């Protein structure tokens, strides 16, 4: 079988070791020749690379690892680019969360003003990676899960319309795993789902087992009592902030009793509750820096110091196996059904054709084939129209370097109470992002 070469863009990410371990776990069904790490922060990436090299030598000596900050070295002769960059790193995530909170508005990395701020930074970084891939490996596919995926996807649709880029998010996958556990299934893969929306803004409308049995009533019954919470204590659930989010899904679901919501809708339906329950001096960025970042870099340093990965607490990111499923679908034309972020083009028949929507697709060697969704109800359609407006205006603001359009985008967000609050937040965000955003006129 052909061995595939992969570039992980954002090699210094906290998710890189878990993804490498997950790739190693799938070598039989997805053989790998070389894994290349690419990052624009040499030092950060080096710690991850040195530890992963020791780990690979011990567990899969046939797989080569190369780490570089040089685009030619990193992007030539590869089949897939798996992109998970965070432009501005956690320092800027902290600003994205704390600046809106200072103005009494939701402070979140992908929703509301924080998401717009992160989007204005990510577009440049993601486009740069698409361009490197096309220059050095024009036949390759980019699997993008860099956030904010909604804005990144709209930017690549508009600014790189012919690129081989697939945008995907793991939140529906994470929620489906919880749903499956909650109704006694072994895996989300026992479920066939219908879902529509935008990224971090969608609803399940139908969930069945492989025999066609309707699973919605039992999942809804659980969500009406407990949200998506389980009592299994999964890694994510051990974190109080994620726990709150899973529980809050109960109130989010009450808005439409026939569907099941993405947890991120809480930021749009209950912004007052979210702000009340936020600590403006210690946000999710602080939790992640003190938790996941410290743990991953600490474990990598331990491996380097000991010269062995034996006994390491770094574990496979099982959950990230969707990335292998996606790469395999393209490599072997499996036509796997997956939720992808794609241009609508009539799939949702009563919705803007150029909107980037998250819907089921069949994925094969030609890329993604969206499945038809049909008409959606007024409540969801109206919410989505407003949010698509926010996302499109942000990309237009980036392209045209327009202060006015970014102010409009912020004002249109359901999370922002008025144009004057939007303006105050925008002025603070411009100051904080002066090293990253295009200059706004
Ligand atoms: N779509 C999803 O469902 C999903 C799930 C989890 C994480 N993510 C995303 O994955 C990304 C990584 O998350 P993390 O928490 O591990 O962040 P992280 O900060 O640990 O890692 C990101 C890396 O990207 C690098 N980087 C920044 N700008 C770059 C550029 N222009 N070129 C190359 N490298 C660059 C940074 O130096 C850093 O090493 C984020 O965008 C996050 O939102 C997405
Ligand atoms: O606050 P963070 O950095 O921990 O997470 C933000 C991300 O949340 C989602 O990804 C989750 C995923 O759903 C979960 O199952 C597990 O793998 O952890 C991921 C990250 O912790 C979301 O889909 C991403 O877009 C966010 O970046
Ligand atoms: Mn996501």
UniProtKB/TrEMBL annotation:
PROSITE patterns: GLYCOSYL_HYDROL_F4. Its cofactor is NAD(+). PANTHER family: 6-PHOSPHO-BETA-GLUCOSIDASE-RELATED, MALTOSE-6'-PHOSPHATE GLUCOSIDASE. The keyword Transferase does not apply. Pfam families: Glyco_hydro_4 (PF02056), Glyco_hydro_4C (PF11975). InterPro entries: GlycHydrolase_4_CS, Glyco_hydro_4, Glyco_hydro_4_C, Lactate_DH/Glyco_Ohase_4_C, NAD(P)-bd_dom_sf. Binds 1 NAD(+) per subunit. It comes from Mammaliicoccus vitulinus. This is 6-phospho-alpha-glucosidase.
